[in-house]
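Study the following:
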Amino acid sequence: MALTAAYVLAGELHAADGDHGTAYPVYERRLRGHVAASQAVLEPTTRYDGDGRDRPRDGTAVGPEPEAALRAATAFDLPDY
């Protein structure tokens, strides 16, 4: 996601002739839905036991299903700058 965001920001800055006041809002609008969808998919799916250790309380795997993570990562259509 970081590379996608960097690419879009660079493209919008270029399209706005370096005017960040114009480029940033367009950049945010372009990425907002993709970021929200990715965050929803990537949220942990289990609870932790609270002792500071990185393991779920019920022993199940933590994180998204691999297929869902791949769909979220590839769902964004890059603009052609």
Summary: The mean pLDDT is 82. Residues 1-42+66-81 form one domain. Residues 20-42 form the longest helix (23 residues). The chain has three helices and no strands.
